[in-house]
Design brief:
The chain is mainly α and about 290 residues long. The chain is built from twelve helices and two strands, in the order E-E-H-H-H-H-H-H-H-H-H-H-H-H. It has helices at about 25-45, 45-55, 60, 70, 75-80, 85-105, 105-130, 140-155, 170-185, 190-210, 215-260, 265-285; strands at about 15, 20. Strands 1-2 form a two-stranded antiparallel sheet. The two termini are about 60 Å apart.
Length: about 290
């Protein structure tokens, strides 16, 4: 391992022939199997038929084809269209950076995180399809890039390459910018949406788990807000009790000088309320 932050839940899912199989390894095997099956189906039915049935198409999803919410990551279309090797490079990056993220968050959180990387952007794009019709999307590269964003969130100052003297955070922003400009030039707005959605899911998932400043910032923020509310309520109650005490003291002083008959209706009601509160307090203090 390159880095050493480790979750208590970082354990193999199972063992195979004496070798540990981690969640990230299983995800890589899943991508490879999906790629092989897709290649066989393309050979049998043609690329356009397979791609049209797997792509993330919002009109088809709203017609009930919900498998598209995850089938769109089955393969990288550029591999078959232009013999691009980005799919292989993506799997290598997933191997190196995915295991570091899994080591930090643990196997359960990592599996939930990777599922969120696939499902959440797809659902958001489908919701966007209610107001406009985005282009169909088919690629696994942006989801895998989300794992690198998670790595850069956990270890922003890390140098992931000995040949590129850039920190993970700087490299992440450079790659985000380049990919966005390429897709913008090709008017591929669905790819831009998925890219940034995956990046957002990765960033906020890691921050929720505790990356960033070494603490669970959201839980701390919520606890601070809760403490402030309780403090305000306590201060308000103290002020109210002080005012009530001062009011009763004034009433008792009036009684001592002029007698009970000098009290008006409002003062009598306040005195009776104070007596009732005192009785309740005494009853709560009695042992049961």
């Amino acid at each position: 391992m390159l880095y050493h932050e480790q979750s208590d839940d970082y354990r193999p899912l199972f063992w195979m022939q004496g070798r540990p199989i981690y969640a990230n390894t299983l995800i890589i095997v899943g991508h490879i199997l999906a790629f092989v099956v897709s290649a066989l189906c393309i050979s049998a039915y043609g690329y356009s038929n397979v791609a049209s049935n797997l792509a993330l198409s919002t009109p088809e999803i709203w017609r009930g084809q919900v498998w598209r919410l995850f089938s769109y990551v089955a393969f990288d279309p550029y591999f078959f269209q232009s013999r691009s090797l980005w799919f292989l490079i993506s799997l290598i990056l997933l191997y190196f950076f995915g295991r570091e993220v899994e080591q930090f968050v643990g196997r359960r959180n990592y599996l939930k995180f990777y599922a969120a990387l696939i499902i959440v952007p797809a659902v958001l794009l489908s919701l966007l399809g209610l107001v406009m019709v985005p282009q169909a999307y088919l690629n696994c590269g942006d989801v895998i890039f989300g794992v690198f964003v998670a790595f850069a969130t956990i270890y922003p100052g890390a140098m992931p390459s000995f040949w590129i003297p850039l920190s993970a955070r700087v490299l992440m922003w450079i790659l985000l910018g380049i990919s966005t400009l390429i897709d913008l030039a090709g008017h591929d707005y669905s790819s831009i949406f998925i890219l940034w959605a995956c990046s957002g899911v990765a960033y906020f998932s890691m921050r929720l788990i505790g990356a960033g400043h070494g603490s669970n910032w959201l839980m701390n923020w919520l606890e601070e807000r809760r403490s402030e509310r309780l403090a305000r309520r306590h201060n308000l109650k103290v002020v109210q009790d002080r005012k009530a005490t001062e009011s009763i003291d004034a009433i008792l002083e009036k009684i001592s000088k002029h007698g009970v008959g000098s009290l008006d209706a409002r003062e009598r009601a306040a005195l009776e309320e104070a007596r009732a509160n005192l009785l309740k307090r005494d009853q709560r203090s009695l042992p049961r």
